[in-house]
Write a structure and sequence with these properties.
Helices cover 46% and strands 12% of the residues.
Length: 284
């Protein structure tokens, strides 16, 4: 039998929270499976919370408080854990930041910018500075560091999510960086595709009206939790877990994917645009 790993509650707020959760669960004589029964979450989800590796969703915290009769303790402390995990990211993004590390699939539609998980440092710095022109340099650096760290998701050979990105053709023609840097940005997408880390599709510029024209959408599915949809604008974001709404966005994303070019043709377009930038030409 594998030896249970101890939890160092002094390592930070998430691990302190997780250690308290395990202590109260074991004091009640409950297994992980027994504690999550009646919720929408699996025992692996709860185990990762106990180890300080995953945030506690508010609805699961409420369930735990009811079962353990802890008078709302874990629900009240959720915000402390969220703040501890937020460094370099906006508050509204915290749930996505945690969720993408545990997702089985991540499907993004990004109509105006290369998605954050795919950005190079030069691209990320340009758009962060454009959004926060008066921010101190150290604040911008913190945001860039946090964004670049997210991309480690593609480096874990055992837990890589199935990642799908649909991008409009106009993004390939939008030179927000010098040509050399734009080529490097598109090369990054190509490299991740060639390594079988992602699947990009390009929505042709002449496709006409299409689903999800109103803005960016991310759909995430999990092995041990309900699916989520994330909507984002310039300075705000909204995470949706209502099953009916998630279903609508799921269907809309599938219709958008049907309107996009096949992955092979999409990759060829991306590589062609990168070559044009390298040769000092404007793609298209």
């Amino acid at each position: 039998m594998a030896r249970r790993r101890d939890i160092d509650g002094s390592a930070g707020v998430p691990t302190f929270y997780g250690k308290e959760l395990r202590w109260k669960r074991e004091e009640a004589g409950l297994t992980l499976q027994q504690l999550v029964e009646g919720s929408f979450y699996g025992q692996s989800h709860l185990s990762e919370i106990e180890r300080g590796e995953r945030r506690m969703p508010a609805e699961l915290a409420e369930h735990v408080d009811r079962v353990l009769k802890t008078d709302g303790f874990f629900t009240r402390r959720c915000e402390d854990v969220r703040r501890a995990r937020r460094r370099g990211h906006a508050q509204y993004f915290e749930r996505v930041l945690e969720a993408e590390k545990h997702a089985e699939t991540i499907e993004e539609w990004s109509p105006t910018l290369i998605p954050g998980l795919l950005q190079t440092e030069a691209y990320a710095r340009t758009i962060v500075r454009a959004a926060h022109p008066l921010a101190p340099s150290e604040d911008v650096d913190e945001k860039i560091t946090a964004r670049m760290a997210r991309a480690h998701l593609f480096e874990d050979d055992h837990n890589i999510p199935e990642y799908w990105a649909i991008l409009p053709e106009s993004l390939l023609r939008q030179p927000i960086l010098p040509p050399k840097d734009m080529a490097e940005q598109l090369d990054r997408i190509t490299a991740l595709t060639r390594r079988h880390r992602i699947v990009p599709q390009i929505l042709p510029g002449n496709c006409g009206a299409h689903p999800l024209m109103m803005g960016a959408v991310t759909v995430m599915a999990f092995p041990d939790a309900p699916p989520l949809v994330y909507l984002e604008s310039q300075y705000s974001g909204d995470t949706i877990d209502d099953p009916a709404l998630v279903k609508l966005y799921r269907k809309a994303y599938d219709r958008l994917r049907a309107a996009a070019l096949p992955p092979e043709a999409s990759l060829a377009l991306i590589e062609e645009a990168a070559g044009d930038y390298r040769n000092g030409k404007q793609p298209g």
